[in-house]
Amino acid sequence: MVAGRGIGAHVRPYDTLPLSARVFAELADGLFHSGEALAARLGVSRGAIWKAVRELREIGIVMHAVPNRGYRMAPATQPLDAAKILEHVTAETRSILRRLETTWCVDSTNSMLLARPNPPFGASEALLAEYQTAGRGRRGRAWLAPPGGAICLSQSWSFREAPADLGALGLAIGVCLLRALRRAGLEGGLKWPNDVLVAGRKLGGILLELRAESAGPACVVIGVGLNAALGEPLRKRIATLGLPATDLASAGVTLSRNIVAAAIIDEVTRGLGHFEREALRPFIEEWRSADVLRGTQIEVQTTGGVARGLARGIDLHGALLIETPQGLRRFISGEVTVRPAS
Fold it and tell me: Model pTM?
């Protein structure tokens, strides 16, 4: 454990990790390593190394195997490391974070934080995983990403009382993500209600889950998924679902995932404090500037049917405004698609 100002950076001891996780770490440099050398370093048989490599392939990692050279993972990556992330967060963030943890594999980082007690008021916890077996986005959609291919991050926060406009928090978090990406040299856009886009392709998304008491405290868990280096096979697979995707590597970001994760945690932590005090007001102009839907013909599918019209941005409460033949309509939830130009 690496201690900061009131914060612990929790990393599971290397020798207790699953063998597949340790092989992943050994191959993260993108160079060839022989099975014999890997087996010697990790104290296992070459057959165990072969099995671990097969497991990594099965969860989506591109692995090259060449006779007389060994195994190589593509692309190279820096494994997520809580201590390295902690080095890059600000002192202000360290004073608010109670716990920062990285782990190899969980079902869902959101589910794991939701299973824990609420953090104290004014404090936060953050959890990152290399791989999620049941990662999800809005409406229960699966989130697809191999180890090393994404930033899978959840952060919890307790409100003394649920803010009246808590439904707009996801939009504020979207602005926080754009601020973090800007620190990495990347400009993005936002698609209502929770998608982050670069050049018209989805880079990531946000999933908020709430545990609240009636007229009392509320704990929100903010799930952030950002594509880091998906690889061409997975990008093609995602495209078959009708969701053109991009990733940080394709967008030209050269910073490690640990540095980008630190920027996200910084901006989200700061943004949560601002949202608790002022709701969407400190974020709305940035959101409107990044709105990729504004001025386009869209349709919104809700439980009450489908509405079609011209996107007119959002109001101060985070609702989507659509100009329809029946007048200006307001939506607080729904599935949005852009209509083809006629």
Answer: 0.91
